[in-house]
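Next comes a concrete protein, fold included:
___
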Amino acid sequence: MHIINLLAGNIPSSEPVFKPEGLRMLTRFLKELLSLILNLVPADVWYKGYVEHYLLGKYGTRALLSNPASVPIPFYVIVDDVGFPRIQGTDVTLDVYRDMLNLAKRYDVKLGLGIVAKYIDYLYITPHSEPVSYAQELVSFIRNNMNFLEPVHHGLLHDKMPFYGEYLCVNPHTGQLLEVSPQEQESYFEYAWKIYREVGIPEPKIFVPPKHLWRPGVTDLTAEKYGIRYLVTRPKAVISYSIGPRSRNLWIVSRAAPIPDLVDIPRTLLTRVLKIRVWRELFAVHHSIMMHVSNFIQKDFCQKWHVLYENAMKSRYVFLAKDCEEAFQNWLVHRLCLENKLKAKFVGGVLELKVMDSAFFKKYIGEYLEFSVKSHGTVDIEGGEEVSRRKESEYNIIKVRFPVLKKRMALVTRC
């Protein structure tokens, strides 16, 4: 079963997997064998069979992704572990962050930076300070490039060794859980926010719990007190929680796995397995893509990033979200459809959206539902209005807005 999980990409390669050397070699061999077999299948055959028939059906929002107009899934990247001095035995330098900035500038989008606060505390504001040698330069770099970099809170400590996690901890060897009291959790937020204020980084509105470990009813409520609007996480087996609103002001939003965690892809691995993993994660109903700083360390991976962004631009199913808020808007439409609070159907060139749960909309969505539509041509909007328009490859990205105050209403786009 472990091998199957690895082949399926269910175990993120950025987290240690404790297995004998022989099992690692067998896993790599099976991956390469599977990749070789898949490369014998013509690209258009596996793409249509895997992507258009399997994935779109699996995630249940096929109607939103129909031609000639679609409500695409957001492509928005959050980079974790910002501030770590070393990752996987390799030094993280300021040039790594310059490469991130160049990528964001090239595609005119923001990258979320998951900052671990103790590593940027060059003023030694808290007793937990462990500033990286270039912490002051990193802080200035972030402050001076806020048009392309979006601060994300990724904890004060990241881990409480030998445990993983900060707001809920787990022993990676035994699976033992370590609870963190509400008072201690609040102290971590208080220290981190003091660091952000003193060094001059805008207080984050986005929160990614370290190792995606947190306690519902405690961590989320504390985060909300500090102005967090989006708690971005992947479900963990050790504790259950629901995706969606926890309060009027904070949303729990889902996140895709690394696609791929580039530094861990064997050089001998052929491309088809990688493509399958990429498409699977892109088509999951997610708010953002999870990446780690390690994916920017090696210069020869820069081209892979450009290929990934170019593929997203060319797909009618995915669009480059400008920032977290734009990613959230399209994630929300897909999530509402999955939960049957919004119903979508595509008939005769018309994509029709109907509110199924008006009470939910009134309480959590507010006055308007706003999202982006991707189309080759023009889109006529019935019952709403166009907010903005931009070009993405050969597609038009049209942001639309609909009022949601009526008990029953149809949201229609017509091409």
Observations:
- The chain has eleven helices and 24 strands.
